[in-house]
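Look over this today:
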Amino acid sequence: MKIPFLELLLLALFAFVGGLAALHRSLGLKSPFHLGEIHHAYIGALLILVGVLVAGWVGLVLQLLGLVLTIDDLGEHIAQTFGDDDYQSPLHRLYGRYLWPLKWVQRLTRWLDALFT
């Protein structure tokens, strides 16, 4: 199975879980997952797209990295939607510990969130 096709399937599942999270909120249940925020699954999709356009091993590495980001984010939001509201994936925890303290990362995240909402 080619990575771009697998990525499309994962993003479809991601959107489905986002819809379930919205349904949960409409029923008065708690869910921290909102599709209109920047997610590392979106960054993963972008890396796969760039990886498809870049030839050779660099393109393959970008695609694999994008796949890992997407799977990590999908797993996080499945866990949040189906029981553990506070769950943070391993990559989310690394982001929070090492990247979020950087002011430029905070500004970039707010700007990207504004683009999606």
Summary: Residues 56-81 form the longest helix (26 residues). The helical segments are 3-26, 40-53, 56-81, 90-99, 103-116. Residues 19 and 35 are 8 Å apart (CA to CA). The chain has a mean pLDDT of 86.
